[in-house]
Design a protein that fits this description.
Blueprint (H helix, E strand, L loop, with lengths): L6 H6 L4 E5 L3 H9 L4 E4 L3 H4 L11 H12 L6 E5 L9 H13 L5 E3 L7 H9 L4 E6 L5 H4 L9 H17 L3 E5 L3 H10 L4 E4 L7 E4 L1 H4 L17 H17 L22
Parallel strand pairs: 1-2, 1-8, 2-3, 3-4, 4-5, 5-6, 6-7, 7-8
The structure holds 3-methyl-2-oxobutanoic acid.
């Protein structure tokens, strides 16, 4: 791949694509050092950073704030900014203006939005405005209230057919990649085989063209219930608590700081005359 991963690189990728979320300069630097292809500044920040129970309260200004911190690190990975709830639902003009702010103010390479047939006009408007779009189908978290909770989607033949049709229609509208979230792996496989653009799965099984996970989940830094699709590759949350407990203990018992962690005053060059 090129120095900075582009839409063309994603479309021509020969090996499974890797996308990881990041929300600030630290997470962006870690994700880029791990050589992920894409960094998603996801509206999952509403849950993992802000502590909300879903993503609906995240605003465009907040995504821009976090995306700026990510792009400031000049990662090799392509940076995708998530369009939050209500930033692409009202009108085509407002959608272009909002996505344009993510590109212009935060410097993202592309945007992601959720939904299928009901978002096609917005997708075309963005593509007309030269903004690459990543789609997102299946368990689209911004639909949590409409779905009646975070539930696996596309389980029946009819429901699977709707998602398949939406995937094809989004591809026709011009998206360059499609996130499939929490759908049966058989459906994800069928969709992946039917599309020319890559699918990026999360809870969608092993047959997608790539995978995405949330930074904090991957590193074992999430509190509370973890969905079945999450695999934690480290236990950094517990390690962080242990490290901070050790610091507390050493401060309370006078072990830290020693003189090795302290500064000395300058020694006078001429001895004082008595
Ligand atoms: O917001 C997000 O992080 C996402 C991914 C989980 C796909 O949409």
């Amino acid at each position: 791949m090129n120095e900075h991963v582009t839409v063309t690189d994603v479309l021509q990728a020969r090996q499974p694509l890797v996308m990881i979320t990041a929300y600030d300069q630290l997470s962006a630097r870690i994700v880029d050092a791990a050589e992920a292809d894409m960094i998603l500044v996801g509206d999952s920040l509403g849950m993992v950073i802000q502590g909300h129970t879903n993503t609906l309260q995240v605003t465009l200004d907040e995504v821009i704030y976090h995306a700026k911190a990510v792009t400031r690190t000049k990662p090799k990975a392509m940076v995708i900014g998530d369009l939050p709830y209500l930033s692409y639902h009202v009108s085509r003009a407002e959608t272009v203006r909002n996505a344009g702010r993510l590109v212009q103010e935060a410097g993202v390479d592309a945007v992601k939005l959720e939904g299928g047939r009901n978002r096609l006009t917005m997708v075309s408007s963005l593509i007309d405005a030269e903004i690459p779009v990543m789609g997102h189908l299946g368990l689209t978290p911004q639909s949590v209230n409409a779905f009646g909770g975070f539930k696996v989607q596309g389980k029946t033949k009819e429901a699977g057919k709707v998602i398949m049709e939406d995937a094809l229609r989004l591809q026709d509208a011009g998206i360059f990649a499609l996130v499939l979230e929490c759908v049966p792996s058989e459906l994800a496989q069928e969709i992946t085989q039917s599309l020319d653009i890559p699918t990026i799965g999360i809870g969608a099984g092993p047959y997608c063209a790539g995978q995405v996970l949330v930074f904090h989940d991957l590193l074992g830094m999430s509190f509370g219930h973890q969905p079945k699709f999450v695999k934690a590759y480290a236990d950094l949350g517990s390690q962080a608590v242990q490290a901070l407990q050790q610091f507390r203990h050493e401060v309370q018992t006078g072990v830290f700081p020693t003189l090795a962690h302290s500064y000395a005053a300058k020694k006078p060059r001429i001895k004082a005359v008595e």
